[in-house]
Amino acid sequence: MADIKTFYLPDLGEGLPDATVVEWHVKAGDSIKLDAPLCSMETAKAVVDVPSPYTGKVVKLHGAPGDIIETGAALADFEPDPNAKQRAEAEATGHHHGPKKGAERSVGSPAPDDAGNVIASDEGGEVQTGGTDREDEGTVVGAMVSGNTVHVEQAASIGGVKAVPAVRALAKKLKVDLTRVRPSGADGVVTMQDVKNAAANGSAALGAAPARAVPASAGRHLAPELPQPGHAPQGQQRGPVSLAGKPVRTAPPSVQASGQPEQLKGVRRNMARVMADAHAQVVPTTLVDDADLHGWIGKQDITARLIRAIVAACKTVPALNAWFDGKNLSRTLHPQVDIGIAVDTDDGLFVPALRNADVLDAAGVRAAIKRLRTQVEDRSIPASELSGYTISLSNFGMFAGRYATPVVVPPTVAIVGAGKLSHDVVAVIGGIEVHRRMPISLTFDHRAATGGEAARFLKALLDDLALPN
User: Fold this and answer.
1) pLDDT tens for residues 347-406?
2) Does CATH number 4.10.320.10 belong to domain 156-212?
3) Residue spans per domain, the chain
4) What's the chain's Rg over C-alpha atoms?
């Protein structure tokens, strides 16, 4: 009987518990070479290509596009080519990924259908072939490096199209046929902007016209299309009366749901976990006040001024520029100010870190923020830049809202929220004036800081914002 090896999903980030299958680059029965792209996976950090750990035949795929695979669970089964040099026999990269303990999986069990409708269980285990127990040797993941190392994604040529995994994921989301997109990148690589342009002008819509031939070996698995929430099936239009001419009655939510349930994936899935942890661990208290910007001279960069004010407040009251360990009841005060800046996207919330904000001038702050936002938008931001900040800023006022109770994410102690600017009537000596003001909300973990420290921090922040320039 052929020697079947099971490849288990490695940790694609810093201890991430799972990842979502975006796209398989092969199907069961295909031959694949060592380090060739096996599939694209989306994590809370990025979209990455997972390389094949073997040269040989793909026997089974554990999951379809859209399925969530837990780290350490089976991803694919292979029949290695006995005549090819495999990585395990050639050189080790030091990144071995075996199954989780405490479970068994039978390779001889029925394989999934062509849709790959098998979702990996919570457990991995020993691999059995022909009824003979065999301890899994662990699998080396090609050139992939996990942990704190930054992944540098290369454009892979799949189906005759050169593109990085994040571009392929965006094309799938925007329903753009990559084979019809005109590449503008070096060496014919399709860029993020190429996909956005094609989506905007409709020049490469899926199914719009026959695309150029794709080799059979580059088959894709497509997830079934679900109706959009709130949309009636084709040929049926919603209206105020039924076909019988009577008023339409809707059922309460407890009787029947009107939309399709959607499992959270990638960034939103991670956001849900982080917010739940924050709610369970932090004792939040919020102070609010208004920063008076009437004294500002000329046009100024509001975000840069907010960053500067936070730095000034951190220097005045270091207790809020800290990490708190609730389990050991210990506090770490930081000499530097690394500010986590909340960036809202369609995929969910990212919080990249603006490093060493205390030594940057206004131009340096603006350049750093622009770089971080660009990296977030094209999903190229390194995982290391999405953690380790010492205090946070949420500039929600650029959309709407005056005050808020922003969430403190452990181990940080505080987060500043900036609301929407307004022109308010202000009482001054001898009369009234109209001043431009910015609502400020400060949420802090009351386990780590006192109310007095928080109030002094807020005052220092407001005082800096009130300065002319």
Assistant:
1) 888 899 999 999 999 999 999 999 999 988 888 888 888 889 999 999 999 999 999 999
2) yes
3) 5-140, 156-212, 267-465
4) 27
